[in-house]
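Dear colleague,

As promised, here are the two records you asked about, laid out in our usual form so they can be pasted straight into your sheet.

NAME FIELD: protein one
SEQUENCE, THEN STRUCTURE:
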Amino acid sequence: AAASRGLRLQDVGPDGDCFFHTLALVTRSDASVDRMRGEFADHLARQWELERGNPGSTLWSDLAVQVLYTSAEEAVRGVPEGRAREEAFDDFFSRGLTGELVDSIVATVRTSGRYNTAAGDIFPAVAAHLYGVDIRSMVYAEGGISWWDGLAPGGKKIVYMVRDDTKAHWM
C-alpha cells in the first residue's frame, strides 16, 4: 500500500523509541532520541504552564480529549466489563486534565525506551507543533489499512510514516 503512493517502507527496531527513530529518518535529522524526547517533554511542560494561565489556548487544549480517553481506558483496564467499569471510566474522564496526569505523560515522553498509549498517541501532534511537520500516516490495523492525511496538520514540511496498530509500532 505504501509503494502505491511512491513510498519505501523502512522498519526501525521495536524499542519503545520507534516514533522518534522514524521521525529522524523521514525528516533527515541527526538528533538523538534522547534529544528529541527531551524537546518533546520540555515543549509539553511549557504548553501545560501556558494552559494553566490561559485555558483553551494551547496544544493541551487540542490534545485533552484524546489524552483523557486513552488514559481513562488504561486506568480501567483491570476493571471487569459492566457498570463499575463505566463509572470508573466516567469518573476518571470527568476529572479532566490534571497536573498529575500531565506530569506522568511528560515523564514517559522524557524517558528513552518508555512507551504508553496516552503519550504515544499524541506524538504526531507534538511533532507538528514543535517542529512544523505535517505527518501523513498509513495506519495498519486488524480491520485493514487506512490513510490519515494531515494527522498532525499545520506543518510546513510533509512527511510520511507508517503505524502498525497491531504492534503499537511506528516505521
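NAME FIELD: protein two
SEQUENCE, THEN STRUCTURE:
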Amino acid sequence: AIPVLGDVISYTVAPLIGDAIGWPLISKMFAPQPISPRFERDFPLALALRPSQIKAFAQDTSHMIAAAQQLSPRYGTITCPTVIMAGDADRIVNFERQAQRLHGAIPGSRLDVLNGAGHMIHHVDPGRLVRAIDLIATGGITRASTQAEATTWGTQRGADRGRREERRCEQ
C-alpha cells in the first residue's frame, strides 16, 4: 500500500515470497485443523500471488484497523438479525477481542463459538454456517427479538435507535 515502492515489491519479490510462504500461512489460517482437502485442491494460489492481488490485499490490510475503529461507534445501531461465528482456537484474530466484543456491541446478536476451531470455520463446519443463515432466513432471529433481547442486556438506547433504523434492514 506504499505508492511506487509497493508496486515495485508487488511485481518483483512479493510473488516469490508468497510462493514460498503461501501454504504455510494458509495452514496457520486453518490451524489447529488441517487445510481442507477441497481448499487445498481448488485454491488458486498462483492467482492470489498476481501483483494486482498482492497490491489489493496490502491496501485492504492497511485500511482494515482504521476502518473498523471508524465504524465501531455504529455497531450498537445494527438492528438486523446478526449471528457472529468464531473459532476459539483462531490464530489469526483473537476471538475474545474481536467476536466477543462485537457481540457485546450489537444488541440481540448471537455468538456461536466453535470449540477448537481456527479462523476458517466455514471449512471446519459448513453445516453450522448454513444453520446460522437459516436461523435468520426462517425468522429464528428477527429485528423484534434482537430489540427485545437488547432491553434485557441493559442496552435500551441501542434498541431505541434500532427502531428508528428498522427500514435499513428491510432494504
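A couple of things worth noting about protein two: Residues 76 and 158 are 5 Å apart (CA to CA). The longest helix spans residues 51-71.

Best,
R.
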